[in-house]
Amino acid sequence: MAWDGLICSLHNLGRKKFRSVLTIIGIAIGVASVVLIGSIGRIGKDAIQEELGSLGLGSISISADQRFTDLKMDEQDLQLLRNMPSVKQAVPIVMNYGTSRMRGLIANSILWGIEKGDSSIISLTPQHGRMLNQQDLTTSADVCVIDSNTAKLFYKRENIVGKRLEALIGGSYVELEIVGVVASGGSILQNMVGDVIPAFVYLPYTTLQRYQGASYFEQIAITLRENVSIEATIQQIENSINRQHNLSRGFKADNIAKQKDVLDRTLQIITWVLSAIAAISLVVAGLGIMTVMIVSVNERTREIGIKKSIGATKSTILVEFLIEALAISLIGSIIGIAFGLLGIWGGCVLMDWPFQLDLNMIGIGFIVSVSTGIIFGVYPALVAAKLRPVDALRIE
């Protein structure tokens, strides 16, 4: 009996193909929106977290609080932090915004002063040549490593090891030998600022300091050892640095890891809000199902009367119309999920991101869609089931 009801419901959907297709498309669009937004939110969140991690700012960042002091940190502060038992690694952060030029071409640049090219500050993947080493750092060598995007910007190819780049530092251009080319680190950052700052150049921080005429650091990034109390360590670091400069309050430590967690929660909330907005289209599609089903009941009133007159019960008619509503929402959900996954895959290929899915959001979208179809199909099904055979047969 149930099988007959299913066959009859699917047959009824085929009677008005265009109307059924439009209703199914409405459901599919709603489900695809939920799947796309949910998965894009997850991919974006993971990509941003990876990007922040690749910038290597450690779990804590130390800097001067401009409200209390104009002092800067130097090598003594760096060594003090490195000697603390709870500190795994302390890395100076030196940056310079300027321009670089080669072959008569000029590009806006970010110059990163790093240590030995060991991925301390920015995640660097060598492609050609070598990375910076301790000798470069000790001798403040006029060498640099550039990313592949910068190489292609000036020479239309990646391997330009041995070429010389001129970088604007301290008001004048300095000639640096390119000793290595790395994969474009900070890909999201470069995509965001690529038109304004297309070139990333990495050189020993001592070289950058020498040409800037300064021996201080704007910030020092710290990575803590495992099983260390972050809050207690932050207080200890602040006290040590302030004592070093004979201050009671002047330098502050920011918990970068905590800020990442806050950003993560914020992105998650935004994803859920956008998904909820997308889910509104499912409610609209559900109203479409109700409208279609009510029209279908009016069109098939005489048919319902005939079925009841030959023995069909209220439950039989009710189940038949509910199956019809369920079929519409089920088909729409499957099509929507398929197109949503296809859109996610295409976007990941285009942006060169790893393909990821938010299975929870896909499951929620599917359940909400199917439930919406059933809920909005109940009223038309009840109307059909309550029709009396005598009244139904009077309809021409």
Distance between the termini: 28 Å
Helicity level, as a percent range?
A: 55-70%
Cα radius of gyration in angstroms: 32 Å
Average pLDDT works out at: 78
- Biggest sheet: strands side by side, in what order? 2-3-8-5-7-6
Question: What share of residues are in beta strands?
Answer: 15-25%
SSE topology:
Layout: H1 2-15, H2 17-54, E1 60-64, H3 75-82, E2 87-102, E3 105-114, E4 126-129, H4 134-138, E5 143-147, H5 148-155, E6 164-169, E7 172-182, H6 187-193, E8 199-204, H7 205-212, E9 219-224, H8 230-244, E10 251-255, H9 256-299, H10 301-309, H11 314-351, H12 359-386, H13 389-394
Parallel strand pairs: 3-8, 5-7
Antiparallel strand pairs: 1-9, 1-10, 2-3, 2-6, 2-9, 4-7, 5-8, 6-7
